[in-house]
Amino acid sequence: MAAPLVDDKVNILVVDDLPDKRLAFRVVLEELGQNLVMASSGADALRELLAREFAVILLDVNMPDIDGIETAELIRQHSKTRHTPIIFVTAYADEMQTARGYALGAVDYILSPVVPEILRSKVRVFVELYRAQRQAQALAKAEAGRTAAEEATRRSEFLAFASRELGASLELEEGMQRLLEMVVPGLADEAVLSIRMEDGDISLSRSAGARGVRVMQSLQELPAALVRAADEARARGYDMELSLPPSGAARIVPLKAGERVLGVLLLLHARQSMPYSSPDQATLDELCSRAAIAFDNARLYWTLKREMARTKEAEEKLQQANRRKDEFLAMLSHELRNPLAPIRNAAEVMRRIAPADPGISWAREVVERQVTHLAQLVDDLLDVSRITQGKITLKKEPVELGKVIQHSVETARTLLDSKKHNLFLNLPSTPIWVHGDFARLAQVVGNLLNNGAKYTADGGVIELSAAADRGEAVITVRDNGIGIDGTLLPHVFELFTQGERSLDRSQGGLGVGLTVVQRLVELHQGRVEVRSEGIGKGAVFRIVLPCISEVPQGQAEAKKAEPSVGSGGGKRVLVVDDNIDAAESVAVYLRLEGHEVRTVGDGAQAVAIAQVFAPHVAVVDIGLPGMNGYEVARRLRQQGAQPPALLIALTGYGQKEDRVRSQEAGFHHHFVKPADPRTIQSAIVRWAGEPDAAVQSSSA
User: Fold this and answer.
1) Which alpha helices (H) appear in 168-223, and where do they start and end?
2) Model confidence pLDDT, tens digit, residues 91-101
3) Does the model's pTM come out above 0.70?
4) Which of 3.40.50.2300, 3.30.465.10, 1.10.287.110, 3.10.20.30 would CATH assign to domain 305-361+564-700?
5) Alpha helices, DSSP H only, in 354-437?
6) How far is C-alpha 118 from the chain's CA centre?
7) CB 536 within 8 A of CB 483
8) What class, spelled out in words, does domain 168-276 have in CATH?
C-alpha cells in the first residue's frame, strides 16, 4: 500500500497567557484529533512557529508583555509564517482593533467565552484547508519529481544513443555528420562543426530543413565575427556567446579531449535568446564531451591508417627497389659473364695449342686468375641478394668436414700462393661429420681463407684448424694480418663493411664476403664469431656447427672419381650464342676435343640448322634475341627426326629460378658463364658413357 502524501495530523497553535483558558481550548479541540501546541506568551508562540508549521493559530489579543496584535505583526514579518491563518480570541473587540487585526491577516475574531461547536467548526475548516494545501503541494512535488525523472531519463537515453552513434564508426567525417544530425534542429537552427587535423581542418555544416550536411572549404565562409569567436574559443578552451545581426545568436563550444582542443561546434539560432535551460546546457556539455572522445579516437584511427598507408607505400617502394636491384644484379651478372666466357675459353684454348713459352704461360695464368676473381665478385653479389631474400636452398646431407676444408684450400690456393702465405692445417685424425650443403660450407671456409689472405701482408701466416667439442664442430681461421679496429669489430658481418683502404685498394673486394659467411652459417643452424686484439694484431674467425652422431651407410664413402676428359669425342655439337666470341671460343675448344661443331647466333637459326646438322649435343645460351634459349630447347625437343640427346644451357643467368626454368625446358645441365670449357667436355663424356642418363646438373 502506498504511503499517504501528507501526515493525517496537523499542528494547531493555541496562544494564551491564562492556563485555565489553555486547558479549556485543549478540551474543546481534542475532538479534532490534531496536534495541539500550547504557548503561554507571544515569545513562546514565535519559538514554536520557527520550529514547525501550523494549520491555524488561536491567538489571545489581551496578553501581558507582547499582546496578540503585536505578536501577529511579528508573525507576519517571517516568510515562513506570513500566510498562516490567525484567529483572534478576545473578550471584547472594538472596530479599530478589529480593523487592525484584519489588516494583519486575521481570518476571524471569536469572542470569549467561546462556543465549543463554533470554535471547533472554524478550526476544522482551516485544518482541512491546510491538509488540502499540503496534499496539493505533495501532488505538485511528486509531479515535478516525475517530470524531472522523465526528463533525466530522456537525457540519459539521448546521451546513451549519442555515445552509440558517435562510437559506431571510426571514420571521422561520419562521426561529425552524426553529431550535426543530433543537434539540428533539436538544439540549434544551424550548426557548424570544425575539427583540426594535421593536414588542415575538416569543416561540415547542417541547417534545419536541409537534407544532409554540407562540406565547407574552411570556416572563412562564415561571417568574420563568428570566425574570430571560433578562433578565440579554440585558443582559450571555453564557451562563447555572441549576437548575430539582425536578430540571431550563436554559441561556440570547444570540443576538448583532456586539455587538448580538437575543434569547435558552432550553434546558430534565428532569435537572440537561446532556448537553453540548465538541463539542456548540461546535456549539451556532456554531448560535446562524448563527441570529443569519439573524435579523438577517430583522429587516432585516421593517424594510424595514414601511418599504415605510408608504411605500406614505403614497403612497396622497398620491394620495388629490391626487385629492381635483383633485376639489375641478374642483368649485371649476365652482362659481365658474357664477355668473361670467351676470355676463359680462349685462355683454355691457349693452354691446349700454344707453344711451351714461359711468357705465354704467364699471360694465360694471369687471364685465368683475373677471370676467376671477377666471376667470384659477381657470385658474391648474387649470393648476398639471394641470401637476404631467403632464396638460398641448401642441399643438406652428411658431409665430412675434412673434405670441405680440403676443397676450400684448393679454392683459395691461387690467392695464398700469389701472396706467398704460409698455410698451416690442423685437422683431427678422426672424421667430423655435419649435416650441411657441401658447396656452401666450402664457400664459407673459402671466403674466410680469402679474407685472411687479402688482409695479411705478403709472406704472412694463416692457420686453419678443425675440432669437435661437445657435439659441435669448430672451424678456426687465424691470421697475423692487419687486424680489425675495435670500432669496426661489431660491424664486420654487415653488408659492404670494410676497414679503411688505401687509395690503391690493394685488398680489393666488395665487402660482402663476411656477410655471405654469416648468413650461410646461420642457415646451417650455426654461428660465426670474430676476435681481434686490434690494428696490426691479426684476426681469428671461429665457425661453430652442430655435429651429427650417425652417418647413413654409404654416405661416408668418397665420391666417385669424375670421368677423365679424354673420351667421348667425335660428337656433333651445335653451339647457340649471340656473342660470337663466346660461341667461337667454345667451338674451338670442343673441336680440339675431336667434336664436329657448328655455331649460330640466334634461336631461329638453331632450330633450322638442327634439322640438317642433327646434333648429338646442343650448347645453348638462354638470353638469345628473339627466341630465347628455353624456347629453343623446347623446339629442338619437339623435332620429329632426331632431336639432340644432350641439352646444355650455357648462360649468364644463374639464379635458382633460372635453373628451374632450364630443367622445365628440357636442359640436362645448366652452366653459368664463365664456365670452364672442360666442364662442358666432362658433361659430354659422362653422357657418352651413359647415353640413357638424363640427370639434371648445375654448375656455378
Assistant:
1) 172-183
2) 776 777 778 87
3) no
4) 3.40.50.2300
5) 358-388, 401-418
6) 93
7) yes
8) alpha beta
